[in-house]
Design brief:
- By secondary structure, this protein is an alpha/beta fold.
- The chain has 14 helices and 12 strands.
- 47% of the residues lie in helices and 18% in strands.
- The radius of gyration is 29 Å and the shape is flat.
- The two termini are 17 Å apart.
Amino acid sequence: MDTICAISTPQGSGGIAVVRLSGDEAIRIAESLTCPLQDAKGYTLRHTRLHRSEEMLDEVMLSVYRAPHSYTGEDVVEIACHGSLYIQQEVLRWLVEAGCRIALPGEFTQRAFMNGKMDLTQAEAVADLIAAETKAEKDLALSQLKGSVSTELNSLREELLHFTSLVELELDFADHEELEFADRSELHKLAEKIEARLRELIQSFRTGNAIRNGIPVAIVGAPNVGKSTLLNALVGEQRAIVSDIQGTTRDTIEDSLILDGILFRLIDTAGLRETDDTLENLGIERSRQAVEKAQIILSVTERGKDFAQITVHEGQTLIPIYNKVDLLMPDERMNLIDGLCISAKHGAIDSLKTKLINVAKASMQTNAVMLSNARHYEAIVLAHTAIEAVLSGLKSGLSGELLSLDLQDCLNALGEVTGQITNQEVLSNIFSKFCIGK
């Protein structure tokens, strides 16, 4: 396999830049431009000059990693040079002229996958870790990089593979119908266990996807209860127009907020009421759509007004909120026991922030292993459909041959997640989204 090179640090000038080489000729090529490296041990660092004939380009630090104990599983050399844009580009040019090829996006990680250093879920987690903007995103990506998803799926797949092999063994002895290698009752128990776990993983996608893209929080209620004021208080700026005129907010307004390392996607909605105004009714319909998609619903009202009638679905959390409590006497506040008491206008919303954090963390703890990748989700849904077909087949006494087909469908879907079964088109699509140099 040819030797590739790329700048692995962010674009632009800086104190230092790191240029990475990987491949069979990595050490020889680096040696031709620096110092003798053939006897260099892995995980060693040395200071040297980057030169060609009589021309010196820079003083650099070289890191040497020997195959297979490197990120890619190949010989790897990293050149830490000064961060001048000119020097970075010259290092690349010299390496290419010495026999390297410029790496494609994600090619280092793709080689790590191809060389068995990580499975596909871990490879995808590398990109997620690089893109993480919050602590929650980082923690989720790091968990998947450590193999949380792949360990779970590999365990299920190995158990299922054992029974699939026994069912297929029966097919080899089709002339002896009395032979049954795969105990149907045990297979039924296993299929039920796998179906339940896959269902849990499917349900976890809502939380995992929310961590990755922001937990959707819908702010709903009647007109003039302070929904827009609350949005402004949460984000710390005048994001939404505040007015005493009913129907001011006629469309959803979105902004984001990070609390304790968790990203929340706030959605201020039009006030829910009966109206003949066509435009306002369109806004109210969008409000209801936002409520359907939200993971957390902030139902806002004030003293003397009822909470809006909202249907809460599985996976959603409703937080009732009394706003404008600054206008109430202390004894009046004590009677508001069925909701959080806040004053959005005066920024007294600490109790709400704490509640949002606690709700988000509770959902994360419920799902120790979470799906956050749409590709994984789609494959797990297919695997779940296949295992349901197995259970249905067992119940109806389906033949081993037909059971085997459904079992194989489930195995293949699980294998697609971790990369045990995949194709070049899928791989190219995944790694093309990586940054160059990783």
